[in-house]
TrEMBL record:
This is arginine--tRNA ligase. It comes from the Eukaryota. Residues 318-345 are annotated as: Disordered. SUPFAM superfamilies: Anticodon-binding domain of a subclass of class I aminoacyl-tRNA synthetases, Arginyl-tRNA synthetase (ArgRS), N-terminal 'additional' domain, Nucleotidylyl transferase. CDD domains: Anticodon_Ia_Arg, ArgRS_core. The keyword Chaperone does not apply. It catalyses: tRNA(Arg) + L-arginine + ATP = L-arginyl-tRNA(Arg) + AMP + diphosphate. PANTHER family: ARGININE--TRNA LIGASE, MITOCHONDRIAL-RELATED, ARGINYL-TRNA SYNTHETASE. Its EC number is 6.1.1.19. It comes from Hypsizygus marmoreus (White beech mushroom).
Amino acid sequence: MSPPQSDYPVIAGTDISRCVLDQFRVAIAVQLSHSLGISLSACYEGIDVGKKGVDFTVAVPRFRLKSKPQELAARAAKEFIPNEYISSVEAAGIFLHFQVKTSTLSRLVLSQIYELSQPSPNAPHGTYGQNLEASGKKVVIEFSSPNIAKPFHAGHLRSTIIGTFLANVYETCGAHVIRMNYLGDWGKQFGLLAVGFERYGSEEKLSENAIMHLFDVYVRVNQDVKAEAASGEQAPTDEKAKDVFRAMEDGDANTLALWKRFRDLSIKAYEQAYRRLNVHFDVYAGESLVTSENIQDAIKALRAKDLLVEKRKSESVTHKDYNRAEPETTEDDIDASPPEGELGEKPAWAVDLNAWKLGKPVVQKPDGTTIYMVRDIAGAIQRYEEYKFDKMIYVIGDQQDLHVAQFFKILSLMEVPFASQLEHVNFGRVNGMSTRNGEVKFLDQILDTAKEAMLDQMNKNQEKMSQIEDPDRTADEIGITCVKIQDMSAKRIISYDFDWQRMTSFEGDTGAYLQYQHVRLCSVARKVAPSVILRNDPTLIDTSLLTEPKAHELVMLLARYPDVVRTALKNSEPNTIASYCFKLSHIVSSAWEILIVKDQEIELAQARLLLFTCAKSVLSSAMRLLSLSPLEHM
Ligand code: ARG
């Protein structure tokens, strides 16, 4: 089937071969722009989706015309001639409300969705919802970024979920995306870890579960440090760790080999957990991979631009202030506060950002060791050299808002060519991510807990349970969906409480509910076969039989999916898509009793089955965009 044809002029930014709704908006704009005496594209921009059963609404005041909006609206409504796209228009004060012609809508939308949902080698799930908004753009997205030998906390989980979503959206909009994990794999604590491994390490445990074992070793050796500090005498462990890290920074082969093994094994373990989450990375970058050459160059550039100022301990209010933008970074575990006098005698180097209310962040410590801040500055430059990206997005929690604002500002003061291409996508905190056994420390624990909660639920219905082919995998998938959906249920900046009970319920807008609705849509076709089998040419189906308001509402929502994807690209909000999924699920679930397929006259059954088939395709696309794996059975 060829894309819908139209005699209408083409308006920039519209693409009826991907979004049929554009066609209806053009149909409105063509007449309305004439009545109002404005340009076609200005008029087009002013057409919004309507509320409460209204298909499209135009708020006349937005065009800022000389005459009274009420009068203009009344005149435009009177002049408008209904056609095959728009069946009626009504002036309501300063607004114009348009209704779309149901038969044209259903015919064009359903055939487009059906057509674009067919799998192809390049697009195994079809292309409906895709657009070219970011086509030709290279976008680096940095997300997840856990710290080796430390817990994978809720902030890392959120970054992983949101970052994967963004990567999917950018790809859907035509961008070339590089998914980057910036591991916290450098800093003084790696010296400590090496010392700890010598004392408490076990090769066997390391190969069994690197993440857990390194964490254990780290905790134990930290206890040693604390005990020594408390005794008030010497701190040999601490001293030794510093020496080891210094040796690492100087390139000592033995320690580096050990460190590399820790890193490699940790990545292997992370990859497993990420796979379970349907997440992957193109690059495992890390703080360790920002080269000392690049760091030195960045410092030089800062100095050349006259941006470096001294910062003494006396002026840094507290050590906390000195380090305040580094909540869960890899720094300074060994000596939470530097020895008295260290900052006092030898100054640190900082950049004065007080003019922008961003404080005076330190970029180089008095002892010359590198820190988080300068690694981010040099790291961005290094990445630009490597990727020449059009955009680089950092998905980092709002606890580091200040840190990110600081290094973005510093880069812009350095006048790097890509300063305006950096974007911080932030998010709020999660409280209380713990299980019955206490605080959750690793990604797998979170996923296991969700899965167990699902298995508990499923076990309540033994009959159903016995029909499920692979209960373990199904429970895992639903559990993961629940964790992700909970995270995307509100705007990302909003903090939330991790709530196992509510999250894993089948009631309310949860992941389990969403999977259930998808499964239900999959089962319609199974349930009505063999008496109804969908014709594979939708043009042979009489969609004009879909006359019910519920059908109109559902088709209209399906038609809006490409718009919703574009909105999500603009606002970087997973919630935009998650809300859409729930809206769609709610309409579908209220449609079952009205748009019955079973035992209907064959033409009507075909039309309704086509509608539900399209709804299933769109719901599954939207779920995939959220990185979920839609289930067919459960
Ligand atoms: N590893 C850091 C942490 O856990 C997050 C890294 C964020 N990315 C960055 N470029 N600073 O706090």
